[in-house]
Amino acid sequence: MDIINVTVDNKPVVVRKGTTILEAAKSIGIKIPTLCHMKLDDLSIENKPGGCRICVVEVKGRRNLAPACCTEATDGMEISTHSIRAINARRTVMELILSDHPSDCLVCAKSGNCELQDMAHQLGIREIHYKGEQSTYREDTSPAIIRELNKCILCRRCEMMCNEVQTVGVLSAINRGFESVVSPAFEMNLDHSVCTYCGQCVAVCPTGALTEVDHTGAVVRALADPTKTVIVQTAPAVRAALGEEFEMEPGTLVTGKLVAALRRLGFDYVFDTDFGADLTIMEEGTELLNRLTRHIQGDPTVKLPILTSCCPAWVKFFEHQFPDMKDIPSTARSPQQMFGSIAKSYFAEKLGIKREDLVVVSIMPCVAKKYECGRDEFAVDGNPDVDFAITTRELAALIKVSNIQFRLLPNEDFDNPLGESTGAAVIFGTTGGVIEAAVRTAYELHTGKDLPRIDFTELRGMEGLRSAVIDFNGLPIHIGIAHGLGNARKLLEEIRSGKSHFHAIEIMSCPGGCIGGGGQPYHHGNAEVLKKRQMAIYREDANKAIRKSHENPYIQKLYEEYLGHPMSEKAHHLLHTVYFDRKH
Amino acid sequence: MPKIKLSDTAVETIREVCKTFGNKEGELINVLHQVQEKLGYLPAEVQEMIAQELNMSVAKVYGVVTFYSYFTMIPKGEFPISICMGTACYVRGAEQVLSEFRRQLKVEVGQTTPDGKFSLSCLRCVGACGLAPVIMVGEKVYGRVSPQQVKQIIAEYQEGCSSQSAKTA
Question: How much is the pTM?
Fold first, then answer.
């Protein structure tokens, strides 16, 4: 029997066998409160350890209360989600959790966005009857992520993301009973571990236990320094999500308001990481074509598939876990770093200022970008190409503290020359976008013909692993796409065992790509938000006058005036990088 | 944490044990059990190697090692001292005996003296309740132990008398 009948709060509901009580209730509009549970539909991500017991409900005929998130509904089940017993149990559980949680909400980084705070409010907790010992742990600060475990409620969402989704395996619950805590092995600091700083643990943490390192103070100080020219670049995924921080519908594009806000914050030039993305395509696309051509000519030394290298967490992942394959990814720097490098050379020269007097700030959907811009190879004489990377969330905080009414801002345009970009660059913000942008350019460069179509819908979607064959004028190009590092691992293992048949593979660390980055407004487990951001990205692309990177007039000018041609010696020096073996 | 280099025999032992259990992640507890039996303890380097052999994260291995009190990351002393905290021993004053050992040796339960001679642990009932409170040094059992005897027992081993050398676990 596949269909079962149950009643939830006296309402009959018909569900498929295997449905949990939580889902059965949800299907008729009853939202049972949850805390540790989190489910991202479409991405096959679910955390239901049944640990917090906030979702307990009363089931007629059952002796104890049932955790709704991990109890299957059975035929004839009569469920009460708000019986006195259920509500009392829920409140008791909540009070016990709060009894071991600092009550410094007013000054917590997560205040206003905290699921624990919301739950305490929803359950109407006014007093904590249980007094006892409170856990105290040292704070662990890394280049991108802060762990403040006094605030951990052991929901273990971070552990699930780190192990099952990303297969990075840094975090695990350790010790026992009251001493239990989520930690790297041997309680080492995060920056001594193989953490990639993808930030997916931060993205799902319900409390303030995991947050990003805050660089807004440093940005404000730079803006206030009259001796500095401060420029800003904004990543593609930011414009599709920032509005959420200002109560706008998920999927609202706020590009124009974003530019206006940055100008009002005092940045001297408001530029676009998309310019860097177009540049990435020029370099990476050329590298792809070079490798392909050599492969076709029968060169046995050529490494295929080529892997994209835009994502700093992905780069750190293969440096730790697959160092034997570090010559396979493209050597192209990420758009953030290409932008920084060009800003502090080409643009600084244009302005006639020293690189030390130019401050480059980037707005990123990502926490790993904080780590990336601090890597030694991306600095000249100790001066970094990108000085500070702040997240979408940090930018929202800056806008709020600066008394800017974001929703009322007019739409403004980016400055030139580093603000001009194409539709190909915008789609870098979503899974499938980088490779689609590369295909648009590589196809035309390879065939010398105009693309018959610009939208490669076969490369789009939300499935974790996708593949497609693109016809390059009679030459079938096999393309693989992975988002989420667990999926990336599968493709890498195929390559290692010689089974991969792909020519090019795009990898993004975060589920959904940068739209689901660790620095984006919290999705609170709602996968619809990610889908809407993705649709917004494709909308922005469709509305662009120029949609192929090699047609960006300012990119063409940059090559004419400064770089020569893609993969030139100067381009190599400024736009390419090397990878390190971090395992041995 | 200072790194130690595992000896070739230790490496071989770990590899063998993992192989016996089919290098399966699900056999982690069995693997840890046997490796600790053979090597005496489970330092970080051993856990790292087990993680590698079983193809799992070292954080998970550490999670299991710290969950079960049986597993230890500290090498046992030359003469491991175990105090029975079973019901019979407990009611007949095992706790006072334990306190005296802690005081005399200046270590806590689960620790080893700096000279590596003694380690202190608790166990649950050795089946000699008639002799309560019971302690063991290595495999030698002492019955009806009073706090006053503790000094004497420690002294037996401190003189390095090999005739009474207790086998380390």
Answer: 0.90
